[in-house]
Amino acid sequence: MYQCFLFIFLKRKVNDNVNIDSFISKHSKEALKNDPPGEWMPTIPDGCIRLSSGYPAPHLMPVEEIKAAVASLLEEEKDLPLHYLGSPKKKKLDELIQERLTQRGIQVSEEELLITSGACQAIDLIARILIDDQTLVAIEAPTYMEAIEIFQNYTHHFISIPVDEYGLQTDLFEDLLEERKRKGLSLPRFLYTIPTFQNPTGTTMTEERRKHVLELAVQYNFLILEDDAYGELYFNKQSTPLKAMDPDGRVLHVGSLSKVVAPGMRIGWTVAAPEFITAMAWFKKDLGHPFAQATMTAYLERTDMKERLETLRTTYQAKCSVLLSALEEYVPKSVSWYIPEGGYFVWLKVAADTSELLAQATEEGVSFIPGKYFFLNQEEGTGYLRLSFSYADEKDIVEGIKILGKVLREVE
Ligand SMILES: Cc1ncc(COP(=O)(O)O)c(C=O)c1O
User: Fold this and answer.
1) What is the span of the domain harbouring residue 405?
2) Is the beta carbon of 227 within 6 A of some atom in ligand 1?
3) Residues with Cβ within 8 Å of residue 394, at least 6 apart in sequence
4) Total domain count for the chain?
5) What is the CA(80)–ligand 1 centre distance, in A?
């Protein structure tokens, strides 16, 4: 008993004396000065309608199919998928993703593909490989806030290029690049863009702007990190990914099964030149999930993905039009928005500070994401908010917009 107390006392003492902070690297300390990751995520009271959540619709999650995939995998391969090396299906997953990419117009060899733990791991690995602490990164304004969080862990040097209803404004980007060149300032090492059904604006870059941005990449010698997380979720028309228009390998293309199968499985990928894929694999080591990858393979082998994608597209298109009709009916006339052609989101411009509005909205029963979190310079986003039509059901979407309309009218 006495020894036990002595042990606890000594352990306490040792911990008290260690100044953990003094061991943390300069680079990490710099990153830890940023806002904590996920700070944008609103606290949502029970029963609140979640128009904030960029999650797939719960009823479209393939629960029974994943159960069946796990059962057949373990029946067939016994302990194999549970080992470090995992199941032979891991290699099959590469082939299945290659097939899916062919349907997006991207021909890819084995050496040009790396499976990652979601698109986010791919973005992080790319950032780690490309960014020094002085590296300039070009991002869209607004853009996916988790990507901002990742890049800020590596550099503080950014330029933001505004997005309008036709996507990234490439003319403004060209002006900015030319001005920097003239002044002898550094040029970006890469541009991060979500050209198709952008998060948060829901907009899609036009064909002309796609060509223009690829020309700029050659002219000003930068790479393009193309995030295609929503590319397959078009309502009527598929857009050509930048990677499919890229003759000289400047585009690093990142994709994901999070929005079309299940985000918790953490399956994403990168398509890039073989030497870049080798560098990514170097740092990724075995930070993947052999069991999740084998399960996803078993699921994909048993699933007609063409049919599933049709279901997802029609379901999300219907939910999007319910949300758009509700906006027409219930929000003040001063509010405006872009009409998305796919994806999960609608972006609203309102005459109020949306982060101040959020507390009242959640109290009344609806959540959204305030626009400021999608901008590097958060003040630019004060008068915007992001709504998602993917997660809530149609009845709740209408109810949620009614509540939002009421809250917005009160501040007009
Ligand atoms: C643009 C964009 N990229 C990537 C992701 C995350 O993908 P994953 O779950 O594969 O990491 C999201 C999820 O919201 C997203 O909106």
Assistant:
1) 49-62+307-411
2) yes
3) 318, 319, 322
4) 2
5) 30
Q: What is the CATH number of the domain that holds 363?
A: 3.90.1150.10
290 CB within 6 A, ligand 1: no
pTM: 0.94
What is the C-alpha separation between 32 and 153, in angstroms, rounded? Answer: 8
The pLDDT of residue 41:
79
Residue of the CA atom closest to atom 14 of ligand 1: 54
Is the minimum distance from the CB of 390 to ligand 1 under 6 angstroms? no
Q: Specify whether the CB–CB gap between 353 and 372 falls below 8 A.
A: no
Query: Is the domain of 171 the same as that of 149?
Result: yes
**336 lies in the same domain as 269:** no
| Domain final residue pick, 280, 302, 324 | 302
CA distance 369 to 390: 14
Query: Are 134 and 230 found together in one domain?
Result: yes
- 5 belongs to a structural domain: no
Short-list 145, 60, 99, 56, CA closest to 384:
145
Q: How far is the CA of 256 from the centre of ligand 1 (A)?
A: 7
pLDDT of residue 167: 98
How does residue 3 score in pLDDT terms, banded at 50, 70 and 90?
low
CATH of the domain at 148: 3.40.640.10
State how far the Cα of 337 lies from the Cα of 325, in Å rounded to an integer: 12
**Does residue 163 have its Cβ closer than 6 Å to ligand 1?**
no
Which tokens hold the place of 374?
């999608």
User: Per this entry, what is the length of the chain?
Assistant: 412
CA angle 93, 94, 99 (to 5 degrees): 95
* Identity of residue 316: Y
Q: Are residues 74 and 195 in the same domain?
A: yes
CA of 284 to the centre of ligand 1 (A): 18
Residues 295 and 316 in one domain: no
Q: Is residue 210 part of a domain?
A: yes
Give the tens place of pLDDT for each residue, 267-305: 999 999 999 999 999 999 988 899 999 999 999 999 999
Tell me the C-alpha distance between 366 and 354, whole Å.
Answer: 13
Residues 167 and 297 in one domain: yes
Residues 165 and 90 in one domain: yes
| Mean per-residue pLDDT of the chain | 94
Give mean pLDDT, residues 205-227. Answer: 98
| Helix ranges restricted to H, 78-203 | 89-103, 118-130, 145-152, 170-182
Mean of pLDDT values over 177-187:
98
